[in-house]
Each structure stands twice: as structure tokens, then as C-alpha cells.
Amino acid sequence: MTETAKYPRDMTGYGATPPEANWPGGARIAVQIVLNYEEGGENNILHGDLASEAFLSEIVGAAPWPGQRHANMESIYEYGARAGFWRLHRMLKDLPVTVYGVATALARAPEQVKAMLDAGWEVASHGLKWIEHKDMTPQMEREQIAEAIRLHTEVTGQAPKGWYTGRSSENTIELAAETGAFKYIADVYADDVPYWIEVGERDQLIVPYTLDCNDMRFATPQGFNAPAQFLDYLKATFDVLYAEGGRMMSIGLHCRLVGRPGRAQALQQFIEYANSHEGVWFATREEIADHWAAEHPPVRWNRPSQMDKATFVETFGSIFEHSPWIAERAYDLGLGPTHDTATGIHSALSRMFRSASHDERLGVLTAHPDLAGKLAAAGRLTVESTSEQAGAGLDQLTDEERETFQSLNAQYVEKHGFPFIIAVRDHSKPGIMEAFRTRIDHDTETEFDTACRQVERIAELRLKDHFA
Question: How many Å separate Cα 34 from the centre of its chain?
Fold first, then answer.
């Protein structure tokens, strides 16, 4: 089997047990409101773009107009700046809010920027322009990020601490992280709480955003058609996260969308609903990032997905008794960060064991020592086997018990051609003896399958120890 490229996506995350958020004041939920300020930064030939904007507006089926201005589209965005922003500002000015500000839009909005800063809102960066980045070269996008930071700092008087491109590329997160400028990056939708990623030597905090609790769905197919739908969805999301506890609820807003009067009322009603509960922490994304970094700082460790092959085999080659070839083949699967757990490595190793030939699996079975056999008596077991047998009390047998085990071992091997294998840590000494007496009478095919399942269980327990 040839080695394949490592799969880069992490499909595991925190798994079944996310860390305790420990939100300030014992809050059960952190509610985070984002106001996207994009008006004046959208596609427009006035801005040097090739066509007009076509994204997130009231115009159904809008398409770019190459080389032309689109007066209707422009006026919809202008509504967001001229009216929608101020309606939302009046509603939200006493709450902690994070603005995702497109730098060129902020530069064209002196009154709005002053109002944001006077309200104490966090103004994070939403990129240089509200355009697609997917086709940019890494260097082009790198230059866009640098110019966004420069212009943002010039316009607001302070550098942004958070980043969200939105219409991002596959390189966006890495490029934003490499600047070292941001407490957090938000260009993911992958979790309900923040998490760390490693980008080279840098540990970067990710504070996930949302596209479901987002007024953009007023402008997309199968979205919200009425304010009540938006309100109901926000309340349902809040209720689940509040009941779970320790989660973050992000709400995405746009001046030209929820800033319309027929929709703004739903936002106001949700804020009142959330405030009717105890233990609700309204926070900016920067505040959430600061809290998470203090409560859960990054921890670097020797991740399996980052090991070279020799290290991987040295580390996991003994998980299946004296069978390093299983680890060698597992490495060649191209394991990524989603396998950096006991369950992940167990899955990879077990796959290679299961897909091996009958003779190869038989070799794994015969590599296992007899229970309480001569190797144990002579102290010649592997460290793992020694510990496992001792944990079940098999190192403290009476002479009669030892003779019984050795007699059963001999009968079992003579009948089936491999030693009796059982995950001793799952059983007491009497239970092991009972299983021994029962299984010795099975046909060999049944017993071969049973022994293979027990080998996998032994490997699982060993990996749990390794990752503990």
C-alpha cells in the first residue's frame, strides 16, 4: 500500500464532551451579535470591480452586470447605510456588538464608524472589499489582508483584533493566521464553542460564526419569508443551547436586511426573550476570545497526524501484539487531525487488521501469549500484556489455578491453533475462567472471529491508556 496525503479536515473536534466554557458569572450561554457592515464595499465598477453586486439583496435572481452599474442594487446597499444601520444602532447601542467591517465600506462611512465606536462596539475586519476571494492567488489575498488591516486602522484608529472574510478562499484562514494580528478568526461554521488550530508555529483561536441564525436567509431560497420565522428560529436555537449550557450563540445581521422595519421587530423581540432568562452573557467576539484563551489556552502535543512514519510505528506498533505492520499500513491511509484520538487511531489500526489476510490475522493471534502461561511466569511478556494480566490478578494465582489455566491453554491451542485471547481488563478472574471453559468448545471459525474481536478490544483499551 502506498502512502497517501494526509486528510486535512478535522471531523472530530471536541467530540462527545466539549470543554466547560465557564462563561463569566456562571452564565449558561454566550450570545454574540454580529453586525456586518458591507455597504460601500460591495462589487461595483466604481470600486474598480468588473461587475455589479449580485449577493444578498432583495432582488430575486440577481446576476452580476459586467461593466455596468446596477442602480437598484446600489440603492439597496445604500438603504443599509442610510437607514438600516441607524435603526439597528438605536436598538443595539447599549449591547456588546461585534461589527464585521469591510475596510473600504468603513472608509465611506464616517458617521456610522463614529457611532460604532461611541457605542463601544468591537469593530473586527471583514476584509478589504465585499467580494469573492476563492480565485485569488495566495499572494493576492495576502496583499488584500494586509491592506485591509492598514485601512481599517487608519479609519477606526485601531487595528482589528478579529477577522472574518466571509466570501473566503481555501487559503483565507492560514493567511489571516500567519499575520499574527488576530485574537480570533471566524471564517468557520464548525462548532458551538471556540477552538484552537495550529498554523505552522502559531496557535490560532477560531471563534465560529453562523449562517443559520443569520438574516441572510431573508435573501436566499428556502430562507426566512417573514419576521416570525426568524424569531422562531432564533428562539429555538437559544433554547437548545441554553439547555445544553456552556455554548455560544452567534447571530449574524446585515444593515440592508434586518435593518428593514418589517424584520427589525423580530430582532428586538428576540433580545427581549433572551434577556428574560437568567445566566445570559451578551458579549463581543473579542470578549469571548479573551475568555476562551484564558480558560482554555492552546496545548501542543505530539499528534499522530503530525508524526513521521517511523515515529508513528514506534508509538503504535505494539498496540496489536508484536504486529508493527498494522501501524505501518494504518499510517499509509493518510491520517489527519480527525484521527488524533484513541478512537481515531483504533479505527485506523482495526481497519488494517480486518482487511488483512486470514494468515496475517492468525499471525496476530498467535503473537499473543497464553494467559498465566510460561512466558508470564518467566517475566517475558510485553509491558502491555504484563500490566493487563496483573490487573486481572493473573499474576497471583494459586498452584491449582495456574495448573488449570495451563491445562486449558494446551487444550485450546491444540484444538484451535492459536492461544485463548480475551480482554482481561473487562473481566474478573472467575469471569475469565468461565469464558475460557465456554469458548474452548466453540468451532474454530467462530472462535477465530471471537478472538479477533477481543484483539481489537485489547487494542482499544491500550490506546485509551496512551491518550489518557
Answer: 21
Strand blocks (E) in 146-295: 162-163, 184-185, 195-199, 202-206, 247-254, 280-282
* C-alpha pair distances (Å), 221 with each of 38, 65, 68, 206: 21, 21, 26, 29
Rounded Cα distance, 13 and 176, in Å: 21
Sign of the CA dihedral with 198 first, then 201, 207, and 210 last:
negative
Angle at the Cα of 396 (from 391 to 397), degrees rounded to 5? 120
In this structure, what DSSP letter does residue 162 have? E
Which phi and psi angles does 349 have, rounded to 5°?
Answer: -65, -45
8 A C-beta contact, residue 215 and residue 257: yes
Cα–Cα distance measured from residue 61 to residue 373, given in angstroms and rounded to the nearest whole number: 76
Question: Long-range contacts made by residues 63-69, C-beta under 8 angstroms, separation at least 24?
Answer: 69/44, 69/45
Q: How many percent of the chain have pLDDT more than 70?
A: 94
Question: With 90 as the cut, is the pLDDT of residue 56 above it?
Answer: no
The grid coordinates of residue 295 equal 480558560
**What is the identity of the amino acid at 81?**
A
- Listed in sequence order, the residues at least 6 apart from 56 whose beta carbon sits closer than 8 Å to its beta carbon are 216, 219, 220, 254, 256, 257
Q: Could you list the active site residues? A: 368
CA triple 63-65-71, angle to 5 deg = 95
Grid coordinates given for 116? 460604532
CA–CA dist 220, 342 (Å, integer): 41
Cα distance between residue 465 and residue 387, in whole Å = 11
**Position of cell 447601542?**
93
Nearby residues of 375 by Cβ (< 8 Å), 6 or more positions away: 369, 381
Residue 104 to residues 116, 312, 432: CA-CA distances in angstroms? 16, 48, 72
| CA dihedral over 154, 155, 159, 163, signed as positive or negative | negative
Beta bridge partners of 252: 34, 214
Strand 29-37 and strand 97-101: the pairing is parallel
- pLDDT tens figures, 108-149: 999 999 999 999 999 999 999 989 999 999 999 999 999 999
| Rounded Cα–Cα distance for residues 96 and 21 (Å) | 19
